[in-house]
Amino acid sequence: METSSRELQAAEYLEKHQIKELVSYLTSALLFFRPALKTLGLCTEDEDLQDDGHKITLDKFKEEVNKRMKEIWSAF
């Protein structure tokens, strides 16, 4: 009985503080966003990416890619 109570408390804590969503977001950021920007030549190794505290949506990602591409191509 005590084990299921602790498991229920743990599950409620995870849900309340959105821990699963946070872990999912951090995993995506580590595995996708930074390498994608580097591959596209839009982020250098030493560049510090600023986080505005909000989730990075596909639209925000596309906007940033387009903005940086325009900056790159404006030199030509």
UniProtKB/TrEMBL annotation:
Pfam families documented for this protein: EF_EFCAB10_C (PF24548)
Domain of life: Eukaryota
Domain EFCAB10 C-terminal EF-hand: 29-70
Protein name per its UniProtKB record: EFCAB10 isoform 6
